[in-house]
C-alpha cells in the first residue's frame, strides 16, 4: 500500500473516531515529505467547507507561506467532491491520488451527484435561487484591480 494513502486513510479514521466529520482524509506531499495532513472537520468546526482536502490545502499553504502548491501532490482517501476538486486546481496542485470513488461515498450517503448535475446544467430542480443584480456597480472593484500596479496575480 502507498504510504501516503495509508496516512490519508488513517486521518479519515482519526476524524471519525473524534466525531469531527465524515470518513475522509488527505495528505499533501512535496518531494516525498509530508507538508500537511487533515481529515474532514465539518462537524467539529461547523464549517461546511472543512473537507479534508480543503483543510490540508489551507494548512500546507500556511506552512509554506504561499498559495501556489504546484510543487506538491495530494493524496485523498476518496475522490474529491466538486468543491475540493476546484480547490486542488486553485492551489495549482499537479497530481491527485485518490482511493475510494465518489460512487463509494454516495453508497454511504455522501452523494455529490446533485452538485454535478447543477454544474452540468442537468439538475431538474435547483436548491439555490440565483439572481444577478447590480452588475455595473459590482464591476467597480474589477476596474480598480485591473489598474492596481502592485497586484499579485494568482
TrEMBL record:
InterPro entries cross-referenced by the UniProt entry: APOBEC/CMP_deaminase_Zn-bd (IPR016192), CMP_dCMP_dom (IPR002125), Cytidine_deaminase-like (IPR016193)
Keyword terms, alphabetized: Hydrolase, Metal-binding, Zinc
Any GO molecular function: zinc ion binding
Q: Which GO terms describe its biological process?
A: purine nucleoside catabolic process
- Where does the CMP/dCMP-type deaminase domain lie? 1-110
Regarding protein family, the annotation reads: Belongs to the cytidine and deoxycytidylate deaminase family.
Q: What is the name attached to this protein's record?
A: tRNA-specific adenosine deaminase
**Source species of the chain:** Clostridium tagluense
Amino acid at each position: 500500500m502507498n504510504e501516503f494513502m495509508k496516512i490519508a486513510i488513517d486521518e479519515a479514521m482519526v476524524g471519525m473516531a473524534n466525531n469531527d466529520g465524515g470518513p475522509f482524509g488527505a495528505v499533501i506531499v512535496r518531494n516525498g515529505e509530508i507538508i500537511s495532513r487533515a481529515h474532514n472537520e465539518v462537524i467539529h468546526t461547523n464549517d461546511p467547507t472543512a473537507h479534508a482536502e480543503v483543510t490540508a490545502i489551507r494548512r500546507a499553504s500556511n506552512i509554506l507561506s504561499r498559495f501556489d502548491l504546484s510543487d506538491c501532490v495530494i493524496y485523498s482517501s476518496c475522490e474529491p467532491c466538486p468543491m475540493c476538486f476546484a480547490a486542488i486546481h486553485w492551489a495549482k496542485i499537479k497530481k491527485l491520488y485518490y482511493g475510494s470513488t465518489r460512487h463509494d461515498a454516495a453508497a454511504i450517503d455522501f452523494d455529490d451527484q446533485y452538485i454535478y448535475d447543477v454544474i452540468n446544467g442537468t439538475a431538474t430542480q435547483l436548491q439555490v435561487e440565483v439572481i444577478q443584480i447590480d452588475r455595473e456597480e459590482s464591476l467597480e472593484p474589477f476596474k480598480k484591480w485591473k489598474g492596481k500596479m502592485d497586484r499579485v496575480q494568482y
